[in-house]
Write a structure and sequence with these properties.
Length: 466
């Protein structure tokens, strides 16, 4: 697994890959530019090797890469901007509108949407505009696409390329385990890092759209809170349209999660019965002829040579995929569709909206009411939302089977979404009950936060789709 020519070890940067909203990942090679290799440069070590299936939804992959590369800085900057805005609001520097706080109809305070707005705007700007300088490997850019000789050499050296990669990012989708190239890359990475540290990151492609949908659901819910119509009170029409919008995005989320659960089921089956002969590759589907009808060599022949060289035989390779690769992929995917840190990032608008509410109360000196508001926001952010997400995962798993008729299938997702919204309303009712039953608001907020933390801990550990 050594590189025969140092020139073949090339890397690019996420900035190049994500240019033009990931044009390199979205364009059909036959229609687009063929000289992407100009965007790569020779290197001595690849930071992260990006492994993906060309059959996966390209927009979902682009969204996922934006989040993997810029997600954390986006949330950190968004939260800092939201805190700065809430300080400015709390000290009366930013203007606000008159608002009656939840649970205190006798009070009228001056509140602004500054924290929520600045958090959302700054995090989205960082997400889209930050350009990471790390070195990554993407096949279309780092392997010559128009020179068949160089392309063949790079394929022969794939083991060396993977051996010289510090980590591997698997962008998993339902086609990943049936593509020969994808399985080969993962197996070769694990093989080449048997004696060194193996940094494998498996992220479902679906995580990109799912995280953004969650972010918008939470933002919408936070807007409803900040604007001051909890569900249906003063303004029935505004309340109802907000609930309808929430239901629509929530149903979309359940729909996506149901698809994810079906893919996970298929993956376990694919890996347990993996065979080299049944895998698919682009070269064979194109009949080994390029766009001009000129013949090119089958990748399977080259890969077969590499497999025999590194794994001993095709049977050993298949055995490695059925055991080691399967275990790494499934443990990398985890029990929950969204990792806890991703849920926290996606539900940050809850925290930003709570900072708005607290700032409006701090502004008029109501510290004893403002502090419980902030605690409630933290409880929704750190505990209630992750717990709701776990239940959402379970409901989607239960409803995963696709219905024959599209309208029935959609109805299943709507039913799931209604169930989740009812649970969210129950959590809101529990919060209300704590504040009604306990006289001291700080104690009431502590009771609600403690209860939610306990509930989240139990659901996160115990409730896993089987
Ligand atoms: Zn072929």
């Amino acid at each position: 697994m050594e590189i025969s020519e140092p020139e073949l070890l090339r890397a690019t940067s996420p900035r190049r890959v994500l240019r033009g909203f990931g044009r390199v990942l979205r364009l059909d090679l036959a229609l687009g530019q063929k000289h992407w290799e100009k965007w790569s440069r020779p290197t001595r070590q690849i930071g992260q090797f990006w492994s993906h299936s060309w059959q996966a939804d390209p927009w979902a992959k682009v969204l996922l890469l934006f989040l993997v590369c810029n997600g954390m800085p986006a949330i950190v900057v968004g939260t800092l901007a939201a805190l700065a805005a809430s300080f400015l609001c709390g000290f009366g520097i930013l203007p606000g509108y008159l608002h009656t706080p939840w649970n205190h109809p006798e009070l009228v305070v001056e509140q602004g949407p500054w924290s929520l707005a600045s958090g959302c705007v700054s995090s989205l700007l960082v997400l889209l505009l930050l350009r990471s300088g790390r070195s990554v490997f993407l096949d279309r850019i780092c392997i010559h696409q128009s020179d068949e000789h160089l392309k063949g050499l790079a394929i022969m050296n794939m083991g060396g390329l993977l051996k010289n990669s510090e980590s591997l990012l698997v962008m998993w989708d339902s086609t990943y385990a049936e593509r020969l190239w994808c399985v080969f890359e993962l197996a070769a990475y694990l093989k080449s890092h048997e004696d060194s540290s193996c940094k494998l990151m498996v992220r479902p492609v679906l995580l990109g759209p799912l995280t953004l949908i969650t972010f918008f659901v939470v933002t919408l819910r936070s807007c409803i809170l900040v604007a001051g119509f909890p569900v249906v009170s003063k303004d029935v029409l505004a309340g109802l349209s907000a609930v309808a919008a929430l239901l629509a995005v929530c149903a979309l989320q359940v729909q996506k999660l149901r698809g994810y659960n079906r893919s996970m089921e298929a993956l376990q089956h694919q890996l347990s019965s993996f065979s080299f002969a049944q895998t698919k590759s682009y070269c064979c589907s194109a009949n080994h002829k390029d766009d001009n009808g000129a013949p090119f060599r089958c990748d399977r022949e080259i890969l077969l040579e590499c497999i025999t060289l590194w794994f001993g035989s095709v049977e050993s390779f298949e055995q490695c995929v059925q055991s080691k690769v399967s275990a790494s992929l499934l443990s990398g995917l985890g029990s929950h569709a969204l990792p806890y840190s991703w849920i926290l990032a996606a539900s940050s608008p809850f925290l930003w909206a709570a900072a708005d509410s607290a700032a409006s109360l701090f502004r008029c000196g109501e510290w004893r009411i403002g502090l419980p508001y902030l605690l409630n926001g933290l409880a929704w952010w750190l505990a209630a939302t992750p717990a709701l997400f776990v239940v959402c995962g379970l409901v989607s798993h239960r409803l995963r089977a696709r219905a024959d008729r599209q309208c029935v299938d959609l109805l299943k997702s709507i039913v799931g979404a209604v169930f989740i919204i009812i649970l969210a309303l129950l959590a809101a009712a529990a919060q209300q009950a704590c504040f009604t039953l306990v006289d001291d608001e700080l104690h009431a907020a502590l009771a609600f936060s403690g209860g939610m933390t306990l509930l989240a801990g139990i659901t996160w550990r115990k409730c896993k789709p089987s």
